[in-house]
């Protein structure tokens, strides 16, 4: 194209000298008319205006509207995400508080159970000690009672045997002597 | 039949009439019995029972029953009589009654009082 354009410039008669005259000749050679260019420019502007009014402007408005919607959606999404994060934080705090409360309740229950168990154990020990003491006292009493019964029985047997022996062995002289002593004793009362 | 209050009071009065110097007099008792027989009381049996009870108690206070094991002399009885007469400040007569269960020694009963010094009582003390 450039070679063809250079050839045309070189081969064109030099009716007028200078580059402007040459450019003019070239435009004329290729059929370029200023009027046509002007009309084409006007037509283009009219077409541009029509397209701008009925095509580009509504499209731009729609795009801006969609952009606004998208921005609003993004903002809403961010807000939702923030609320979600806040809700998660709140729920985490609530769960943590609930865990603390539950742990506290468990600790108190364990403490109460331990105290109850200790108390029961102490009472059981006390009862066992009381039972042991009572059993020992009962055994001691039973032992003393048995000893007393044995002592009484032995004494009774000894006295009975002594009576039998004395009844056989005491002579009248012995009895008379004892009677005199008894008389003196009773008289001295 | 139990004696009522009036019968007991009358028996007490008759009992006092039966004493002479603090001692039961047989003559007075005979007179009291004659009076009771002559003047019939509305409850004569109850009256005589109450009177007999008082006379028996009084006679028992004047009598010392001496239970003994083995021989006992009259001197011993006299000695006991003297001791009881002095103790009760009234004439006390002693009567002897053998009791072999005493083994040896004496048991003197004056009324409801008992004085004992015997082998059996000492052995009984040991067996308790």
Task: Give your account of this protein's structure.
The complex is a heterodimer of chains A (189) and B (128). Chain A is an all-alpha fold. Chain A has 4 helices and no strands. Helix content of chain A is 92%, strand content 0%. The N and C termini of chain A lie far apart (182 Å). The model of chain A is unreliable at 1-6 and 11-15 (pLDDT under 50). By secondary structure, chain B is of the alpha+beta class. Chain B has helices at 5-17, 26-38, 44-61, 74-88, 119-127, and strands at 19-20, 23-24, 63-69, 93-98, 105-110, 113-118. In chain B, strand 1 (19-20) and strand 2 form a beta hairpin. In chain B, helix 1 (5-17) crosses helix 3 (44-61). The mean pLDDT of chain B is 88. At the A-B interface, helix 3 and helix 4 of A face helix 4, strand 5, strand 6 and helix 5 of B.
Topology:
The complex is a heterodimer of chains A (189) and B (128).
Chain A (H helix, E strand, L loop, with lengths): L1 H10 L7 H11 L4 H136 L2 H16 L2
Chain B lengths: L4 H13 L1 E2 L2 E2 L1 H13 L5 H18 L1 E7 L4 H15 L4 E6 L6 E6 L2 E6 H9 L1
Parallel strand pairs in B: 3-4
Antiparallel strand pairs in B: 1-2, 3-5, 5-6
Helix pairs in contact in B: 1-3
Which terms would index this structure?
heterodimer; A: 189 residues; mainly alpha; 4 helices; B: 128 residues; alpha+beta; 5 helices; 53% helix
Q: How many beta strands in the DSSP annotation of chain B?
A: 6
Class by alpha and beta content of chain B: alpha+beta
Strands of chain A, total number: 0
Strand order of the largest sheet of chain B: 4-3-5-6
Report the helical percentage of chain A: over 70%
Distance between the termini of chain B: 42 Å
Count of helical regions of chain B: 5
Q: Overall pLDDT of chain A, averaged? A: 88
Uncertain segments of chain B are: none
Strand content of chain A: under 5%
CA-based gyration radius of chain A: 70 Å
Instruction: Calculate the mean pLDDT score of chain B and round it.
Output: 88
- SSE string of chain B, helices as H and strands as E: HEEHHEHEEEH
Q: Tally the helices of chain A: what do you get?
A: 4
- The CA-CA distance between the termini of chain A, in Å, is 182 Å
